[in-house]
Design goal:
By secondary structure, the protein is mainly alpha-helical. Helix content is 86%, strand content 0%. It is built from 3 helices and no strands. Helix 1 (2-40) packs across helix 2.
Length: 65
């Protein structure tokens, strides 16, 4: 039983780490898009294109801006 609990804890920890990495990457991308929009005067779409954000992800990013 202790092994099962340890495995569950490890799995939860790994999921938390993955979520943290994804959140950090998303926040960095949002910051970069905003920076390009402000400093270069690009539209949201232009900034996303220049950062090579895949098209399926762009709508979600635009909604967060």
């Amino acid at each position: 039983m202790c092994k099962a609990i340890e495995d569950m804890r490890e799995e939860a920890r790994n999921e938390g780490i993955e979520q943290g990495i994804e959140r950090g990457a998303r926040e960095t991308l949002l910051r970069n898009v905003r920076s390009l929009m402000e400093s270069v005067g690009w539209s949201k779409q232009e900034a996303l294109d220049m950062l090579k954000v895949p098209e399926p992800e762009q709508a979600g990013i635009i909604a967060m801006l």
